[in-house]
Each structure stands twice: as structure tokens, then as C-alpha cells.
Amino acid sequence: MKLTLRVWRQKNADADGAMSTYEVDGISPDMSFLEMLDTLNEELILKGEDPVAFDHDCREGICGACSLVINGDAHGPERTTTCQLHMRSFRDGDTIDVEPWRAAAFPVVKDLVVDRSAFDRIIQAGGYITAPTGAAPEAHATPVPKPDADFAFEHAECIGCGACVAACPNGSAMLFTSSKVNHLNVLPQGAPERETRVLDMVAQMDEEGFGGCTLAGECATACPKGIPLMSITGMNKEWLRATRKAGKR
Amino acid sequence: MTSNATDAPYTDYAAYTTGEPVVDTKAPDGPVHERWDKRRFEAKLVNPANRRKHTVIVVGTGLAGGSAGATLAEQGYRVVQFCYQDSPRRAHSIAAQGGINAAKNYRNDGDSVHRLFYDTVKGGDFRARESNVHRLAQISVEIIDQCVAQGVPFAREYGGLLDTRSFGGVQVSRTFYARGQTGQQLLLGAYQALSRQIAAGNIEMHPRTEMLDLIVIDGRARGIVARDLITGKIDTYFADAVVLASGGYGNVFYLSTNAMNSNATAIWRAHRRGAYFANPCFTQIHPTCIPRTGDHQSKLTLMSESLRNDGRIWVPKAKGDDRPAAEIPEEERDYYLERIYPSFGNLVPRDIASRAAKNVCDEGRGVGPGGQGVYLDFADAIKRMGREAVAAKYGNLFDMYQRITDEDPYEVPMRIYPAVHYTMGGLWVDYDLQTTIPGLFAIGEANFSDHGANRLGASALMQGLADGYFVLPSTINDYLARNPHKDEVTAGHPDVREVVAETEDRLARLLAVDGDRTPDSFHRELGELMWEFCGMARTDSGLRKALERIPQIREEFWRRIKVPGTGEEFNQSLEKANRIVDYLELAELMCLDALHRSESCGGHFREESQTADGEAERKDDEFAYAAAWEFTSTGAAPVLHKEDLVFEYVHPTQRSYA
Amino acid sequence: MALATRTDRRPSFARTVWDSSVGKKTVMAVSGLIMLLYLVVHMLGNLKIFFGAAEFDGYAHWLRTLGEPFLHHEWALWIVRVVLVVAVVAHAVAAYQLSRRDIKARPSKYVHKKARTSYATRTMRWGGIILALFIVWHVLDLTTGTVHPDFQAGHPYQNVIDTFSTWYGNVIYIVAVLAVGLHVRHGFWSAAQTLGAGSRTRDRALKITANALALVLTVGFVSVPVAVMTGVVS
To answer: What are the TM regions of this chain, as residue ranges (chain B) (predicted)?
Structure first.
């Protein structure tokens, strides 16, 4: 396959960026999208040019590092991560636009690499259960109904890639935040911090400069792990509950 | 210590010398089940009020590093932690699928701490320490409690209790799991505990910062040199102890199931500074990975070996038979595992299944592009159980396979091939997980570990978390209590200045060569060499060939490498090239270790050492030891220190699966 | 030695709600639902126009005497007006502030544009602005009569017919009603999500209700100008 790539190039956080056009040839449909970029980078290095920087690590769809907006879609046209997107999803001769996640809370580091540490700070604000090592009771002391355990798992699947923010017209992190709130709040182990968790995480989310939710649903469509839009509803419910309870104290 | 001299005087690398045996001075004696308690009692403690005066550096945020950092911070130590990823949540532990073993015996199926201990020592082909393995089995039960308390969503049954399954041919059901994402869920548990401590100000977290060297002062580990991957700034960080939790070195092979950026730099630099490297040739090759599709392949993807429970493995009987699978009649298929191992069939251990696949492909009977694959066929399973039952059991794996290969495994057989997956070798550590450099600890896959020559399925997660949550936080107290550092180290210390200068010089030289080959081209060349000669089956002549070739590649590397850009910016090519520098040295040690160990055991198969029916033949009289290597200088013969292994509880027997 | 990572001191309920993006959405949801309830009643009242001038004018008069003698003349109406004004202002201010936040959160746009990504958001924002402008005109037209061509206090039937006898009156009104329909369609479902009332099992029912409400309101409101234009009501 022969392709034309238009890639966002930006030297560093302070520099202005722009789209640059590259031609790549000899692309196999079996290549992953990132392997196609590897091919481009090998050529660029040999030409003495700066290769395109992009985040990637596990290349099996679970670490959440890869983060490209391809033809306007976070992670490209298939519902998967960029590393699991293959070139057979494109046609010979296509022109493909590759851009970084765009959001105020995710500043560009270089080219297609963005800083997602805002997500870490949301988790630090309360996305955990306080259970210091050694203090744990016997695992079977508290049974968890299977539907609750499955619900928790479904939300715990979030890989923190940020596609939800990238796809949201408002750059909102509601789906990311809600997946963790729902995961931990449904579990009996998470109950003691149920209110503080959601209040603190939402406050941190706002603090980081993410936009609000207009329930456009783009986040859930882009999510490679299929976290449902209802996750946000669940968090709203938790937040209102916590606010009411906090107001009574 | 010399730098990576390209002009090191040529010595015969294979002419290693044997030094004093290395002795684990911390190992307690007495009945095996009392040793961990005994050691914990004997260990000195640090007064809780004094802990915040001690700084511990932790490199890596996977299961081992994440859990260790969180636990040390909970204890009151000041922790400074590093990861090269943009977030501590992305370490490669996240990709583990299958599950985590624990001797809970919730199934009442005869499991016990002793059985897990026994299985692990035997599975490791009698090349692990009994004391360590027993401790691991004991701690396994606490890990499950800890993780459940953190909210790890393990699979549960309708009664609300935890579900378990049997895994990797083990006869008891002791593997806890969270669908196919157990590693992810356990890692996020550790990450969340870590996050809590970061928020509390007890951990200073440095993401996108890569350790490039170790600072040793007066014989003790006192800090690290690290590069900020965004700005390129090289900085020094000081501490009272350094913990390496940087994972394994499987990426020496270029193609492996490891994450692209997993690397050996932290452990290799520590090795160069004096930490012994043990059993580097013990690598695990996983049989059920998706074969490579071409030269563009950047990494390999593993599929859970549970697929072998219902899939049948075969190749055509005739060489070069390139008909589509469906057109090959039953009598022209060779179900070779079922033929060679009638009682275990497709469920033989990982190393045997991998080697058998290599053998049939070497005979020219491999399938798919390049003949590097064998069929894993579900046609019979679909006939027997129905398509829906197969989908319920393996649906997500089938989807993953189809996404990658664009082939529908319900219609055509899957193609699989073995791939490097895990490294049992690593930095030599004593019972306290301390390396031969006082104050330097290694945990998780980074140490030479409790798996001996072969790791059982679902035991990597167990070991990483045992080390991080429970073992290290206990044993490090003893070191810190006995070595209260009064002297502050500063960047101005001559030893520190020297290490920094060496690091800067190495990067500067990489940038200065301006040759005509990319970092990846060297990495790929090295990987292919290692896969051929130090992969699934190794021979004396092959290993010698590799040992001859590696210094040549190294020489060419320093002559022809091309790294664009500068060191003062985000430069992924520079990161890559710098890691290859270390692979080019580590690969040599792996080959030497494989050459010297002229027996077959676990993941290490020497063609010269096999039984009449082609099974691995261990030589306990000669090789019942861990081989700990001491670095001398680049390209120069290292010194071998043996740690003799004593088996008091589990007596060595030859494995047989025929 | 595990250190406490949180403090228990929290701002007041009102502060928490107004300072949070989720809280502001709650304000929008509640005020939106109040306005929606009003719209339904308003629409039903409008339909009385089909029963003739006497009934329609009588209904308008009754609204002013509602609650008497307990309430003074027009007090009930004024209470409703105050509640509505508070709802409109809260809804608009929250919407404005949230939109500002949203726009700030995405300072640079994608070079490769996708139309669909902001359909709902755009409908709500532009629809909201249209409706705000409409409300001003509508009050000046049929409540105060300021912009009405021939306003007669106490004769709403005639006033309505006069308004819909002008082409611009019809255009403004019908555009606004369509905006109401679209706004309610996403807004009702959205409010349910914001208030945490949505669930997987209830989602279909909520969406059907939202569509039904939007449709009924649109048809109900549009029927009046259409009736005037076609001469059914005159």
C-alpha cells in the first residue's frame, strides 16, 4: 500500500505545531498503525530528519499509552486502541490525518505525545480504597454479589488512555472519572470512602481544566474498552448522594 | 569501572573464571515453614519516628515496584519513585492475562502452602531456592486478601465468593483471575495504593524519567542517575537504599511479548557497578503467541495458554505442504503433541510445547508466512461443544486473534508460534532480596527470582506482589536499621560526578556517531541472532557463533549508529539506542551462561543434553547451582560465582510427560 | 504511619453545587425540568384557543384569580413568574459558565473535522440562545404588548391571532418551537442522566419519553399558528 500521511508536528510544548505531509510506500495491510509509523520513522532517521514522536508501549491494547487521533477519530476508525488498529482498515492511496489528543488538560509534549498526568491526579484525589498493606481481612470475609463484582470489573477495565477526553467536544474527563468512581463505589470495600471519593475526584477533574459533560456520547463511542455512557449517570448519582450527605454533616 | 569502551582489549569472553561461591548470608535455617517468621523476627527494625528520615528510591512501577513504593510509604519512609512511562499505571505487568496463584484451598481440592511450594520448585526444574519458594507460597494467601481489600474486581461466583480456575496443567484450582485482565486489575490496585501515597506527599513520583546508572559510594548503593525524557536533563537522586523493580530483559530478543520500551538498562547498569547477574540464560518461551507476519513486526502478542485446553495442535505431515488447512485431509495431518506425548497431549508444559513447535517448523512443516507457525485447531471443539460454547469460553481471545490476523478462527485454524515471554534470570539477590551491592535491592522479574529455570503460569504476578507488598518492606528495614546514613551525598561528590560524566558521555557519543543505521536495525539484528542461537534450543557451536558475532555487532553499532536530534529534548531514538547499548552486552552474558550450563533444565534446552526420546536432561551433579556472574569490563570474560542449591524438602526428579 | 490524605472540612452545600461542573449541570437539570413542566401546562392552556375566544380569555382571566381569596389577585401568577425567572436565569447562567469552561477545555480544534462530534452540544447551545431571545420577544409581544402591533390588555385571543397574522410572528414562533422540541429531546434525557435517574434498563423508556415530550410540545405549540394561518382559528 502507498499512503499519504498528514502528521501533526510540534517541536515541544511551547512551539507552534502544524501538519506535515509524508508519503509512505510498501505498507503491508497486516501492519499495525504504529508499525506503519515505525516504517516512516526509520526512513526519517536515515534521511537525517526528526522522527515522529508518539506514545506507545505494550502494543497489545492494554497499557493505554498509545493515543492518536486518526482522521478525526480517537484511536481511528475501529473500536480499539491505535496499537491494535491495522492498516487493512485503510485503502491503498488513502490520505490519513494523524493528530494528538487535543484538550487543555492534555498539553502536547512533542508531535503526537501529550501529557496525561491530569488523569493521575484525579486518581490521587480519591481513586483508591484505603487499605494499607497488611491490614486486609480474609478475602472471603465480605462476599460481593456477582452482579456488583461484574459491574465493578466492567468499569475497572478503563486503561486511562484518554480517548474519551480526545473525542469529547468539550474535552471532558467524565467517562474516565466515572469509571473509577463506579468501580470502587459499588464494592463493599469501597463504601467507607464512597462520598469523599466522588466529591474529591470530581473536584480535581474540574481543577484540571477538563470541560463539562453535555452527554454527547462521543466518549463512550471512542472508548476502546467499551465503558458505557451510563457510567457517567452512575457517577452523577453518586455525586448528588454525596453532596446531600455532606450537606447534612 | 570503564565506560562502554569500543576499543576494549580483546579477550576471549568465553574464557570466564570461577570465583568464590556466593553465599546467601541472610537465609535462615530450621524448618522451611518457620524460616520467614524467623527472618522477620531477627531483622532489625527502624523506629517509626525515624523512618521519614530515610529515603528509598524505587525504580519501576509495575506490580513489584508499585506495591513496594506504596507499602514503604505507608510504613513512613520517604519514597522517590521512577518510571519511564507517562504514568505509573502503564507498567507492563498490566498485560498479564491469566491469573495469580494462591494456596487458599477455597476449593477444598487438596491445595496447601506446601503443595504450591512443591509445584513451584518442581516446575522450576530444581533450580530455585527452597526457602524463597516456600516464603512465596506462604505469602500468596495474603496477597489475595490484600488485593480484595483494595477493590481488585476478581471473578466471583453467584454466591459472591471468589472464583478460581486451574491453570497451566496444575491439578488444583488455585488461580484467581479477573477475566483475561488479571495483571491489569492487580496493577491498578497497586497503582491506586501508590497514588494515595503520592497525594499524601509520601512519594515523590517521577514519570517519564529513566534510570541510566547507579550511584555507588563506599561500596553502598546511594542513588541513581536518571534522565528526564521530556527535557533530556540528566539528574542525580540520592537515597539510603535503591530498589530496582524494572522488570525482565526479554526485549534482548527484539521480538517478544514484552512492552516496546521494557528494557534492561537499570539492571545492567547495576550489574556493571558490581551487582551479580544470575542465570541470565533462563528465559521462558511461551508457546501460544500470534506468529509474525513480516519484517515490519515490532512485537508479538501472547494468547492465553488456556486455548490449549480445547484446541488441537497440528502441522501437515508433508514438508512444504502449502494447501489451505481445510484442504489437508485428516490422515495427512500430524497432531504431533498428541503423537509424541500421548498422556498429556496438547497440555504439555510451556517449554516442551514450544520446542516441539520449533522442531516441526525446522523440519520445513511449519505453516503460514515464512513457515513459522503451527495450527491450533478448534474444529473438533466446535463440533463437540458447539460454536456458542467455544465462543463463551474463548470469544475474547478469538476476537483478538481475528483483529490482528484478519482470519476467523471459527472457520480456519489459528496459527501460533512460540515467543519470548518472561526471563527467570536477573540480578542475584539474597533472602532479603538484596543484591551483592549493599543497599541495592531487586524485586519482581528484575531479580533472578523464585522460579528457577522455568516459571509456572500465573506465578509471575504472585512473585511480583509478594516481593513488593510483603518481602521487601520487611527486609529493607534490617538494612536501613543497620546502616543509618549520617553522611549526605551531594551532586558534587567525586564519585557522583564521575557517574554523571560517564552517562553524559555515553549519550553524547551515541549522538555523535551520525552513521547510517537506525537503532531498530541493530536491535533487530541482535534479536534474530539471539533467537537463533540462544532461543528455544541451544548448542555449543551455536552459542560460540553468537559469542563471536555479538562483539562484531557491538563494534559496528558504535561505528554506524544514527541517532537524530539532540540529548536536550524528547528523543525516542536516543532512548532506544541507549537501551541497545546494554542489550549488546547483556546478550553476550546470556550466551555465555547458556554455553557454560551444558545441561538442559526448564526453559534452557541444550541439544547436547537430552534423553533418548528427546527430553531435557538435567545434570544435578554438575549444575545444581545458581550461576551468578560478576562483571569485569565490556567484552571481557566475567567471573562466575556459584550458589549451591540444596533440596531438603522437594527431591529432584526428572520430568516426564511422555 | 499511613498518613491521612483527606481533610473533612468541606464547603457548604450551595458552594459545592455551584462550584462543580457536575453541580452546575444539576442546576441546569432541575431548572430545565421546572421549565419543561411549565411548558407542558402552557401548551395545554394554549390549546384552549380551539374552543373559542370566550373560553381562552376566560382561562387567561382565571390564571389571574388563581388561589383567591387566599392569595391576592395575580399573586399566583407572580409566584409562577418569579420561579420561572429564577429558573431561566439559573439555567442560562449555568449554561453560559459551563459552555465557557467547555470551550476553554478544547482550545485548539482538530484539523480533521468530524461533523457529528458536537451535534448534541451545538443543538443545545444554539437552541438555548434562540430560546432566550425568543422568550424576550414572546413576553414583549404577548405579555406586555410592547412589540405587539395592536395589543389589547385582557384580550389574549385577539392578541394571539394578531401576532400570527404577521409572517414574521409565525416565523419567529415556529423556529422557536422547533428549537424547544430539539432542546427538550436531548435536554430531558440529559437531565435524567445528570440527576442519576438513568440506567441501562430505563434508558429506552427515557429516550422514548424524551422524544414523545418533544413531539407533543412541538405539535401542540405549532398547532396554534398553523390554525391561525389556515383560518381554523380566527
So the answer is: none
Average pLDDT per consecutive 10 residues, chain A (249 residues; last block may be shorter):
97 96 96 97 96 97 97 96 96 98 97 98 98 96 96 97 96 98 98 96 97 94 96 97 81
Q: What digits encode the pLDDT tens for the residues A97-126? A: 999 999 999 999 999 999 999 999 999 999
Nearest to B578 by CA among B508, B521, B639, B625: B508
Element (H, E) at A19: strand A18-24
CA proximity to B328, closest of B338, B339, B315: B315
In a domain, C80, yes or no: yes
- Work out how many domains chain C is built from and give that number: 1
What is the span of the domain harbouring residue C76? 21-105+120-230
Query: Which phi and psi angles does B627 have, rounded to 5°?
Result: -95, 110
Same fold across B286-421 and B497-623: no
Q: Which of A35, A39, A57 would best serve as a mutation to test chain B binding (most B beta carbons within 10 A)?
A: A57
Enumerate chain C positions whose Cβ falls within 8 A of a Cβ in B: 1-5
Interface residue B199 vs chain C (CB under 8 A): yes
A107 touches chain C (CB under 8 A): no
pLDDT at C8 over 70: no
| Domain residue extents for chain A | 3-110, 116-248
Residue C141 counted as domain residue: yes
pLDDT of residue B11: 56
Question: Residues B28, B32, B37, CA angle at the centre, nearest 5°?
Answer: 60
pLDDT tier for residue C117 given thresholds of 50, 70 and 90: low
Asked if residue C3 has pLDDT above 70, the reply is: no
d(CA C233, CA C50): 7
State whether CATH 3.90.550.10 applies to domain B286-421.
no
Chain A from 108 to 147: CB within 8 A of any B CB:
109-110, 113, 115-117, 119-120, 123-125, 127-140, 142-146
Task: Give φ, ψ of C39 to 5 degrees.
Answer: -60, -40
ipTM score assigned to the predicted complex = 0.98
- Grid cell of A158 as nine digits: 478503563
Tell me what pLDDT residue B10 has: 47
| Cβ atoms of residues A125 and C7 within 8 Å | no
Residue C219, domain CATH: 1.20.1300.10
Cα B164 to Cα A83, A152, B155, B395: the distances in Å are 31, 18, 8, 19
Q: Which residues of A touch C207 (CB under 8 A)?
A: none
DSSP B608: T
Q: Quick check: B465 and B295 in contact, CB under 8 A?
A: no
Given this model, what pLDDT does residue B305 score? 83
The reply to whether C115 falls in a domain is no
pTM over 0.90: yes
Residue segments in chain B with a per-residue pLDDT below the cut of 50: 1-10
Task: Report domain extents, chain B.
Answer: 286-421, 497-623
pLDDT in tens, A69-79: 999 999 999 99
**CA B605/CA B285 separation, integer angstroms:** 11
CB B148 within 8 A of CB B64: no
CATH for A116-248?
A: 1.10.1060.10
Query: Do the chains contact at B518 and A136, CB–CB below 8 Å?
Result: no
In the set B350, B365, B415, B597, the catalytic residue is B350
- Asked if C3 and B200 come within 8 Å (Cβ–Cβ), the reply is yes
Please tell us whether the domain made up of A3-110 is placed in CATH 3.90.79.10: no
For residue B350, indicate whether it is catalytic. yes
Angle at alpha carbon of residue B385, lines to B380 and B386, rounded to 5°: 90
C-alpha cell at A151: 459491574
Q: A-B interface: how many C-beta pairs under 8 angstroms?
A: 225
Tell whether the model's pLDDT for residue C2 goes beyond 70: no
C-beta atoms of B259 and A59 within 8 A: yes
